[in-house]
Design a protein that fits this description.
Blueprint: H1 7-24, E1 34-37, E2 44-48, H2 53-70, H3 75-91, H4 93-104, H5 108-128, E3 136-137, E4 144-152, E5 155-159, H6 167-178, E6 182-186, H7 192-208, E7 216-218, H8 223-231, E8 235-241, H9 244-256, E9 260-264, E10 269-273, H10 279-291, E11 301-307, H11 311-324, H12 343-358, E12 362-365, E13 369-370, E14 379-380, E15 383-386, H13 392-395, E16 402-408, H14 411-419, E17 423-424, E18 426-430, H15 434-441, E19 450-453, E20 465-466, E21 469-470, E22 477-478, E23 487-495
Parallel strand pairs: 5-6, 5-8, 6-7, 8-9, 10-11, 10-18, 11-16, 15-16, 18-19
Antiparallel strand pairs: 1-2, 3-4, 4-23, 12-15, 13-14, 17-21, 20-22
Protein name: Aldehyde dehydrogenase family protein
Organism: Nocardia donostiensis
Subunit structure: Homotetramer.
């Protein structure tokens, strides 16, 4: 089922990371205290100099200064930077994808898909640059025009997580830039090399089209550096992706200075499988959504709610598929499941399974560690746990490949069970009954920001707004009208008459 990494290939990973950065054109990072590791082996890829709070303050000031000019550049001209970035991303697609694999442990197909997502959102943003529409409304006063206009906010701070080290950055950055903002990016300290590569390409894109490269700033460091973005009044919008506890800490601090927050937090995603479902189709979708990226997606499927009459056939299909999943080195072409991020992730998975069993759950398959990759690399087989009820551990989000299976009888009970968790990111129903599908999508159905029919919970497209409700934070990124989060709205009244009527028919003097 697995192939051992050779000593030769283990030694080559740091050299390979250096070669990829050089191929992209990134300057060699200055050695320092920030350690870049690969979850493939747990070994170091290199060290980088970590930015300080003083560095963060200077980066914010450079972005604020650049904004004063950038905001006045016409949006279609601002889009030239993003268009050129898309071209450079396409040119370096393979190198970027391999860097993503090295730093996150994603398999090649998923890493390549993430890079493609960057290119797609750049194309979306370029088109958006000519569609930052306002509205004109009829005024109640004669000789007057009433309209809305949209303007850039200022400096946008972006804090991204390790599991999507480049896609989430691009969602925010491509749209923020065409909207006329400047960006300061604080990536996860676990993925500094991919961040350095993307920053290099964006700066190159700006330079090549004659824009100010200072419109984008990169901060590499720990939470203390990110905290500067949270508390600095020069940061008009903070877009932060991470855990619910992180959101609870960040949101009040940004609100205290009357800044704006865009939060993408935890997801404890569920899917309902009804008696009319195409079981084979559902099984394929469920396996990818539950086991892909080793369960380390915010949209990972974690709760499966199956009608009692088809639970047996459904679980048979899933267990059969899980036994065929190849766990191993994500650099190998036929591997489907790579490693967990680190030992902490592995211990959280073990603890969650133990709690589930203590609550009466039955471990049907998986959960064991796969050996042969070194003491500091943590590969596990995806687990399926059948639960008698939705206990406390099922209501929590464990960032690991654990699928909890619950059963139901009535569709109303299934929806109630589905919605009875604090998180509200992504959801799905598998059914061929149109009434069930429509009810799931209606106001009384799924309470999540994403609700799908006959497709899994993961794999969102950039054309639709991405985000969730409840403890997921309520933010929206990427497509649709998510651009409005990156701009401020002004209501304008223009009097083109020689009279001065007041609104609501008020007469004064």
């Amino acid at each position: 089922m697995t192939r051992l990494l050779s000593e030769h290939s283990i030694r080559q990973l740091p050299e390979r990371a250096d070669a990829l950065l050089r191929g992209i054109g990134a300057a060699a990072p200055k050695p320092g205290t920030l350690v870049a590791r690969t979850p493939i082996t747990g070994d170091q890829l290199g060290t980088l100099r970590a930015d300080t709070v003083a560095d963060a303050d200077q980066a914010i000031e450079r972005a604020a200064t650049a904004f004063r000019t950038w905001r006045s550049v016409p949006a279609p001209q601002r889009a030239a930077v993003v268009r050129r970035l898309a071209e450079l991303l396409s040119l370096h697609h393979a190198e970027l994808a391999e860097l993503v694999t090295l730093e996150t442990g994603k398999i090649g197909a998923e890493a390549a898909g993430e890079v493609q997502e960057m290119i797609d959102i750049c194309e979306f943003a370029v088109g958006l640059s000519r569609q930052l529409y306002g509205r004109t409304m009829p005024s109640e006063r004669p000789g007057h025009r009433l309209m809305e206009t949209w303007h850039p906010l200022g400096v946008v701070g972006v804090v991204s997580a390790f599991n999507f080290p480049v896609a989430v950055w691009s969602w925010n950055t491509a749209i923020a830039l065409v909207c006329g903002n400047t960006v300061v990016w604080k990536p996860s300290e676990r993925t500094p090399l991919t961040a350095l590569a993307c920053h290099t390409l964006l700066r190159r894109a700006a330079h090549e089209v004659g824009a100010d490269p200072q419109i984008h700033q990169l901060l590499l460091g720990d939470a203390e550096v990110g905290a500067r973005l949270v508390d600095d009044e020069r940061v008009a919008l903070l877009s932060a992706t991470g855990s619910v506890p992180m959101g609870r800490a960040v949101a009040p601090r940004v609100a205290a200075r009357f800044g704006r927050c865009l939060l993408e937090l935890g997801g404890n995603n569920g899917a309902i499988v009804t008696p009319s479902a195409d079981v084979e189709l559902a099984a394929r979708a469920i396996v990818f959504a539950a086991a892909g990226t080793a369960g380390q997606r915010c949209t990972t499927l974690r709760r499966l709610i199956v009608h009692a009459d088809i639970a047996g056939p459904m679980l048979y299909q899933l267990e059969k598929a899980y036994l065929q999943l190849r766990v191993g080195n994500p650099l190998e072409r036929d591997v489907l499941i790579g490693p967990l991020l680190d030992g902490h992730a592995y211990e959280r998975m073990r603890a969650a399974i133990a709690r589930a069993i203590a609550d009466g759950g039955e471990l049907l398959c998986g959960g064991e560690r796969v050996d042969g990759f070194g003491d500091e690399a943590f590969y596990v087989r995806p687990a399926i746990v059948r639960m008698p009820a939705q206990t406390a551990i099922v209501r929590e989000e464990t960032f690991a490949p654990i699928l909890y299976v619950l059963t139901y009888r009535g569709f109303d009970a299934a929806i109630e069970l589905h919605n009875a968790v604090p998180q509200g990111l992504s959801s799905a129903v598998f059914t061929t009954d149109q009434r069930e599908a429509e009810r799931f999508l209606a106001a009384e159905g799924s309470d999540c920001g994403i609700a799908n029919v006959n497709i899994g919970t993961s794999g969102a497209e950039i054309g639709g707004a991405f985000g969730g409700e409840k403890h997921t934070g309520g933010g929206r990124e990427s497509g649709s009208d998510a651009w409005k989060a990156y701009m401020r709205r002004a209501t304008n009244t223009i009097n083109y008459s020689d009279e001065l009527p007041l609104a609501q028919g008020i007469r004064f003097g």
